[in-house]
Amino acid sequence: MSNVLNKQPAEVFVVTMHFASRLTVGETITSKTVTASIIATGADATTAVIKSSTIVGTDIDVGVQGGTDGVNYKITIRVGTSGVNVLEEDIIMLVREG
Fold first, then answer.
1. Please, which residues bridge with residue 29 across strands?
2. How far apart are alpha carbons 78 and 98 in whole angstroms?
3. Which fold has domain 2-95?
4. Which of 19, 26, 74, 79 is 20 to 30 Å from the Cα of 2, by its Cα?
5. What is the predicted pLDDT for the residue at 61?
6. Does 13 have pLDDT greater than 70?
7. DSSP 7-53
8. Which residues of 51-86 are buried (b: 16+ CB within 10 A; e: fewer)?
9. What pLDDT score was predicted for residue 2?
10. What are the angstrom distances between the C-alpha of 50 and each of 18, 19, 54, 56, 71?
């Protein structure tokens, strides 16, 4: 599933991805990996646009930063759970000035 996020190049803020509805009763998030790539080329952009990522209960908070005006990025959030499941959500981040 993909979510769309509009962002200006100078903005820095946190986006929260909710996983509660995908977890079974008592299941917790035990690990997370957040990556980013440029959609047009597939080139890695993780260090350019991901500032931080944190597990907060059943959510993942992702700090986004930077990006180049006119470029679209795919942010992939993958979590491991106490029930040995691996869940993944994507955010399409459209960077536009103004």
1. 81
2. 31
3. Immunoglobulin-like (2.60.40)
4. 26
5. 98
6. yes
7. E-TT--EEEEEE-GGGSPTT--EEEEEEEEEETTT--B-HHHHEEEE
8. eebeeeebebebebbbbeeebebbbebebebeeeee
9. 72
10. 18, 19, 12, 17, 15
